[in-house]
């Protein structure tokens, strides 16, 4: 039977499935199908699918009976999938235990269940977890052809941002970067761009950038995250294009003065405090991906004003994209400004 489906490349399948599942758009009456090099995910409401996805009508099979957590409970539980782990957010211990048991008894390929015990906190942006099932908090996550190993108790990682990371990664290599060499000669010039992630974590931006040919530097204050970044570079066969540095980026910036063709600033609550360092690292023609969280009445204005204050008049500042990533809290939006700095 032909039904509306989101059509994506197979390597983007898990990330796409997560986004559609979060929006409750997957039609569980039909099988997810791979055919002729494409993956088809049946959806219940094609008009509600985010615009970045292609929706087509395709013949798929009706799903055979498969036990899902909701079949074992009297309600529809909320959870996220990250590799073979399920992440829940429940204050009631009995309800959390019931959801965990249902997830394990269902047909989901999950062996670890973690319940959020705290908000993201501290300089390293980690949270506490209650481990309800499984051996530990380390997981292997795949998105858009990249593989990431990480420990959720030791590093920050959000599977919900997979689509946003892919949006940015697709821009890498889309135009010819400038050709000047780094003055100190610290790093040889790779074929492609030079990209600098100021808060790199385990590499969800760095790794796909490097796979697209960029020479990348990733900086983070979390030593464990940097260890995972190095391991993820090895797993994805891009270690020759990735430099991982454990430090405050404000200390590293002078070593990479006038270096970057592309900068990622994904620290949305306080990225403005690092704009002076961003301007130091930016080359003659540099695109900055600046993440912010602001009130819905003016989500982009504060970030744009802060960037202009830091970069002008040394640079001409052009906002190329004003992009809403997601709703963060009531009346607050997580947004991204793609800004070009030209000296």
Automatic annotation (TrEMBL):
SAM-dependent methyltransferase TRM5/TYW2-type domain residues: 79-343
Record SUPFAM superfamilies: S-adenosyl-L-methionine-dependent methyltransferases
Record-level Gene Ontology MF annotations: tRNA methyltransferase activity
Pfam families on file: TRM5-TYW2_MTfase (PF02475), Trm5_N (PF18093), TYW2_N_2 (PF25133)
Keywords linked to the UniProt accession: Cytoplasm, Methyltransferase, S-adenosyl-L-methionine, Transferase, tRNA processing
The keyword S-adenosyl-L-methionine is annotated on this UniProt entry: yes
InterPro entries (UniProt xref): MeTrfase_TRM5/TYW2, SAM-dependent_MTases_sf, TRM5-TYW2-like_MTfase, TRM5/TYW2-like_N, Trm5a/b_N
CC annotations in GO: cytoplasm
Domain of life: Archaea
UniProt KW Protein transport keyword: no
CDD domains cross-referenced by the UniProt entry: AdoMet_MTases
Transmembrane segments: none
GO biological process: tRNA N1-guanine methylation
PANTHER family linked to this entry: TRNA (GUANINE(37)-N1)-METHYLTRANSFERASE, TRNA METHYLTRANSFERASE
Record protein name field: SAM-dependent methyltransferase
Species in which this protein is naturally found: Natronococcus pandeyae
């Amino acid at each position: 039977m032909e039904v509306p489906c989101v059509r994506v490349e197979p390597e983007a399948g898990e990330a796409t499935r997560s986004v559609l599942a979060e929006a409750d758009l997957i039609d569980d009456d039909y099988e997810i199908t791979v055919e002729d090099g494409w993956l088809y995910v049946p959806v219940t409401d094609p008009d509600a699918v985010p615009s970045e996805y292609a929706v087509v009508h395709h013949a798929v099979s009706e799903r055979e009976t498969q036990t899902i957590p909701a079949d074992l409970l009297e309600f529809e539980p909320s959870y996220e999938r990250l590799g073979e782990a399920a992440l829940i957010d429940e204050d009631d211990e009995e309800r959390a235990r019931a959801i965990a048991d249902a997830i394990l008894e269902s047909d989901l390929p999950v062996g670890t269940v973690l319940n959020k015990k705290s908000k993201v906190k501290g300089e390293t942006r980690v949270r506490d977890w209650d481990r309800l099932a499984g051996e530990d908090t380390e997981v292997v996550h795949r998105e858009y052809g990249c593989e990431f190993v990480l420990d959720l108790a030791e590093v920050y990682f959000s599977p919900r941002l997979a689509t946003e990371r892919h949006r940015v990664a697709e821009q890498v290599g889309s135009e010819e970067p400038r050709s000047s060499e780094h003055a100190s000669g610290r790093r040889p010039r790779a074929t492609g761009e030079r990209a600098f992630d100021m808060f790199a974590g385990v590499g969800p931006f760095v790794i796909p950038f490097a796979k697209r040919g960029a020479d990348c530097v990733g900086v983070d204050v979390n030593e464990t995250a940097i260890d995972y970044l190095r391991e993820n570079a090895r797993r994805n066969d891009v270690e020759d294009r990735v430099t991982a540095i454990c430090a405050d980026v404000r200390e590293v910036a002078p070593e990479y003065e006038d270096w970057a063709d592309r900068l990622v600033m994904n620290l949305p609550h306080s990225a403005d405090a690092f704009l002076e360092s961003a301007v130091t690292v930016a080359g003659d023609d540099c695109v900055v991906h600046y993440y912010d969280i602001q009130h819905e009445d003016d989500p982009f204005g504060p970030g744009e004003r802060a960037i202009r204050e830091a970069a002008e008049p040394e640079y001409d500042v052009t906002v190329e994209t004003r992009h809403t990533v997601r709703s963060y809290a009531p009346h607050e939006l997580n947004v991204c400004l793609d800004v070009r700095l030209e000296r």
